[in-house]
Write a structure and sequence with these properties.
Layout: E1 8-11, H1 20-28, E2 34-38, H2 47-56, E3 60-68, H3 75-95, E4 99-103, H4 112-132, E5 136-139, H5 156-166, E6 171-176, H6 177-180, H7 186-195, E7 199-204, H8 228-237, E8 244-246, H9 251-254, H10 258-273
Parallel strand pairs: 1-2, 1-8, 2-3, 3-4, 4-5, 5-6, 6-7, 7-8
Helix pairs in contact: 3-4, 7-8
């Protein structure tokens, strides 16, 4: 029986060496079900043309990546970031995508509490505008190593707390195993997230203990130490029925032939996510 990739999606940043059109064609011809589009890849593109290309393919648009980065030392800085997020919403709407992934930001030197409050207030300000466009906002908790300058939301538990505090019907969570696998409360927090209707997205890759760059040396599933099967079981048992989205930042793999690289991703997906199907 041939492999079925209908419940798999790929982030365009995974195959960074490809253009958006190469991504759409390359994913679709392999029967991959979905695509999450990074903002950088369409920066110079006509968004309506990209939307038509996507609609003509067999791919489902999953999300637009990324909004966020709400923090700043001054009200003026934070206001500029709100305006930028409004542009992200407009772009997402133009592309016909249903969700924006938020990397929430952190300002060096600020107390974690200040970062959290600025993130909360920023999301609260843009959530109604996104809702008007029918767009969900998915908060992505990042690994604690990024707390200083990239995200004050450092665990699934904190992301869940933020969703509860905001209490917006279109605000939930993007769960990326790279960032949360280490958490001994992860199974419980996945269940909490799903029970409250916040589990919007599920990103997969692997964490290499010997990585040479914390940002750009992620592994394809199976190259690292994440308990992939266990986490997938928790996610599925919680009732999540969306796609698993491959999101790999890797200078090593970006330098490889992207066709070969994508084949390796599919081999890994078959091994770790279709073994029991």
């Amino acid at each position: 029986m041939s492999a079925n990739y209908s419940n798999l999606a790929i982030h365009t940043m995974t195959t960074k060496s490809w253009s958006i059109l190469e991504c759409i064609d390359g994913y679709a011809k392999r029967g991959i079900g979905g695509i999450s589009i990074w903002r950088e890849i369409v920066e110079e593109e006509n968004l309506l043309s990209v939307r038509r290309k996507l609609e003509d393919s067999e791919l489902k648009g999953i999300s637009y990546v990324r909004g966020g980065f709400f923090t700043g030392e001054t009200a003026e800085e934070r206001s500029v970031k709100i305006e930028e997020n409004k542009k992200v919403i407009e772009e997402c709407d133009a592309l016909g995508l249903p969700m924006i992934v938020l990397v929430c930001g952190a300002t060096p030197g600020q107390l974690p509490k200040a970062n959290y409050e600025q993130i909360r207030d920023g999301i609260g300000e843009i959530a109604p505008l996104a809702a008007e466009a029918g767009i969900k906002l998915a908060i992505e908790p990042l690994h604690p190593v990024y707390c200083g300058d990239r995200s004050g939301i450092y665990s699934l538990g904190v992301a869940n707390d933020l969703c509860a505090e905001l209490s917006q019907p279109n605000v939930g969570v993007a769960l990326d195993v790279y960032h949360v696998w280490w958490d001994m409360e992860l199974e419980k927090e996945i269940q909490r997230c799903a029970e409250n209707g916040w589990l919007y997205a599920y990103h997969i890759c692997d964490f290499k203990p010997d990585q040479n760059d914390i940002l750009t040396d992620r592994g394809i599933m199976g190259e690292g130490c994440i308990p992939l099967r266990e986490i997938d079981l928790w996610v599925q048992s919680a009732g999540f029925d969306g796609p698993a989205e491959v999101e790999v930042f890797s200078k090593k793999w970006w330098a490889d032939d992207q066709e070969h690289y994508l084949d390796r991703i599919l081999e890994s997906y078959e091994k770790y996510y279709q073994n029991d199907n």
